[in-house]
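Late entry, evening session. Most of the bench is empty. Finally got around to the prediction I had been postponing all week. Sequence below, unchanged from the version circulated by S.P.
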Amino acid sequence: MSGELAASPRVAGILLAAGQGSRLGQPKALIMLGGQSLARRGVAMLRTGGADPVIVVTGAAGPGELGPGAEDTAGLAPDNTAGLAPDNTAGLAPDNTAVRTVHNPQWLTGMGSSLAIGLAAVPEQCTAAVVALADQPLVGPVAVSRLIAAHAAGAEVAVSCYDARPRNPVLISREHWPDVIALAVGDVGARPFLRAHPELVTRVECGDTGLPDDVDTQDDLARVERLLAEKATSP
């Protein structure tokens, strides 16, 4: 109807948290940082940034390890949560954002299979998904909200950049998911698709919102802990 405002797009969040963390000694999703697991930090980042629902793809850490009752991941619904319809209250977080875990039994094949499983779990009413990695805990929720805003303004693919360098998270519209999945083979995610279609990419600067630092080793973890401590004590 003329004069009516268009509905805002509904954008899901996908947290890839299947990594084994071989150099850390345990699955990355379960690594504790600042009193929270990397999985829970990633969920909070996506939720706060406006993604709804949030889907956590598990692997080395099975769905039972992230389910309700786990001290550091309370609010994550198990793999058998029935649907994500608005009237389904199972697994809803306190702010009514649905959070669901889906397990990738082929997690050893790499990130590509986890991305495919995560995209397949997104409800039909979502027009796009923001894909984030659990091992980048310094990414801020404002980066997610900026990607969602870019999509609302017409971007089909939006990539967060830090000092003009493209990193994560990334937003991809639903119509491109089949091509993303086809190119996400082995231990790569959306990168081959992004490189094959630069004309689709909207770059969104997020250097002022956080850092894309990976946590792959104990040294990485110690450095990220120091950065968080410095941030907490800064005026």
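Two things to note before I forget:
The beta strands are 11-17, 32-33, 36-37, 54-58, 99-103, 128-133, 157-162, 165-173, 201-205.
The longest strand covers residues 165-173.
Will write this up properly tomorrow.
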